[in-house]
Amino acid sequence: MPKPILIGGVEAGGTKFVCGVGASDGRVLDQVRIPTTTPEETLAAVNAFFARAEADHGDLAALGVCSFGPLSLNPGAADHGAITREKSKSFSAPLLRTGRTARFSDSSWPARTLAGTLVV
């Protein structure tokens, strides 16, 4: 039986970030709810979660990110991976290029980063 592919996910919300790791066979291997505080604190906790999850379960093949505000999705843009606009203006750090998650948007790493936004 082949080893399952591991996929990470981040739901970046205004009050909390939910992070998880799942396997291609449908199992949820790990998950955490992180309160949204400052960009530095919140993203440090996200990075720590994925570092621990990879140590426990293996390397991720992909990471999906969904944000509470519009993300800059153009890889050539100076603000690539950043929340470009949101109501409180208190959280504008790049989601895809900070600390550990920089690995997921680095073209030298073979995994794909999928990002999307939902704006209401």
At a glance:
Helices cover 19% and strands 29% of the residues. It has two helices and five strands; from the N terminus they run E-E-E-H-E-H-E. The chain has helices spanning 39-57, 102-105, and strands at residues 6-12, 16-23, 28-35, 62-67, 112-117.
Care to describe what's here?
The protein has 120 residues and is of the alpha/beta class. It contains 2 helices and 5 strands. A 5-stranded mixed sheet has the order 3-2-1-4-5, with helices on one face. The protein is globular, with a radius of gyration of 14 Å.
Rg (CA only): 14 Å
Order of helices and strands: EEEHEHE
Percent strand equals: 25-35%
Q: What percentage of residues falls in helices of 4 or more residues?
A: 10-25%
Major β-sheet annotation:
5 strands, mixed
The 3D shape can be described as globular
Measured between the Cα atoms of the first and last residue, the distance is 43 Å
DSSP strand count? 5
Mean model confidence by pLDDT: 75
Low-confidence stretches: 98-120
How are the strands of the biggest sheet laid out side by side? 3-2-1-4-5
Count every helix, treating DSSP H or I runs of 4 or more residues as helices: 2
**What is the structural class?**
alpha/beta
Key phrases:
120 residues; alpha/beta; five-stranded mixed beta sheet; disordered C terminus
Could you give the topology of this structure?
Layout: E1 6-12, E2 16-23, E3 28-35, H1 39-57, E4 62-67, H2 102-105, E5 112-117
Parallel strand pairs: 1-4, 4-5
Antiparallel strand pairs: 1-2, 2-3
